[in-house]
Amino acid sequence: MANNQELYDARLKRVENAVLLNEPEAGDRIPIVPVFQAFPVYYAQERTSVKYTIKDLLEDYKKTAEVYDVFYEHFKPDLGWDPILFFPTQYMESCGITWFRWPGKHFDDTMTMYQYIEGDYMKGDEYHEATRDLTKFMMNKWMPRSFANLQGMAKLDFRNAMWFGHMGEMAAFADPEVIETLDALKRTGQILLDWFIYLGEYQGRMKEKFGMPPLCAGFAYAPFDMIGDSMRGTTEILMDMHDRPDELLAMIDVVTENAIADTIAGCSGKAVPYVYYWLHKGVDDFMSNEQFGKFYWPSLRKYIEGVVDAGLTPVIYVEGAYNSRLEFLKEVPRGKCVFNFEYTDMAAAKKALGGHSCIAGNVKAFTLSYGSKEDTVNEVKQLIDTCAPGGGYILDTGTMVDDAKVENIEAMFETVETYGRK
Prior knowledge:
α2 packs across α4 (64-74) and α17 runs parallel beside α18. It contains 18 helices and eight strands. The protein has helices at 4-19, 39-47, 54-59, 64-74, 89-95, 127-132, 134-146, 165-171, 176-210, 223-232, 234-243, 245-267, 289-309, 326-329, 346-353, 365-370, 373-387, 406-419; strands spanning 100-101, 115-116, 218-221, 274-279, 313-318, 338-341, 358-363, 393-397. The longest helix has 35 residues, at 176-210. It has 422 residues and is an alpha/beta fold.
């Protein structure tokens, strides 16, 4: 019987084999790497004596180890999540984050995950200001708007600190509002540092206890989405393509360069080479192919290629449908990326990308939550029949899984173990 180090190595090799567009080795199977969010909590509640709620785990992240241990004792994906999606309530309280809502503070349902609230944290007439000096803009405007307890950031500015300019810059640190902000930053920083250490420790536990490699080295986002998600909001950035296209493109260029450098620095040398890109606003329904080819794809492609050149492997989680975008995706380096689809037609994806890029997906959330075990088995078999021939396929869920039927998740794993074997 294989020990946990051998299981760890075998799982990594199985995934990497698919990334390289190969079929499973003789006697082996296709990889399975489902994207879970709150499902481990639901599973533990239904099948064990561990009855924590989502609210419990957000308020005390150290309880997540117990829940995830229960999950990994039973389910064996080839790459696994650490509890990174359970953001600590203490951090959100301490900085006064304005764009999250969570159980226990904003709503009563203890089994509802936190909710993200978009807003225009950069105004339309501020593009030039942000592009000219993004660091100053983030410090003086974006952060005070995004975090209620960090209002003092608006009073700090180091651009003119050379020579005796430092006197005025340093004097700002005596301002009561700045002092309050620094105290909040210290508290928040310690909470986050402790949490990051905990996540690293749990990744070590995954390896030693379960032979489970971590899902990824880090997260990434399309530059268009980085601006749209956290600065402008969906409606505003889609209008900006018409109202201020040149300013938007200039901002995208700045964000792209920073993202490439930061991702390479943050993800290189980790246990796995996978960088998970979460794509939000490039879906078929949000913009035309012409707009996609002008505003969304060039910067994302540059970002992907920069990460590939650094020896990392982008895993691009294509949320929504990309049925009209598949030809664009063929422009990335061959055999270096994974495209993970939510609603895209998998037969079309296989036809377009087979032999070029590994594809992953997309057992439907509806099937897992509301379908029968037989429905799940049939859907998994159909995906394997469609996507596995010729190699380069990883079975995954279409979306993050929360309250799915346990028997359906079990059926998904069991079908891959039997029907997905070479």
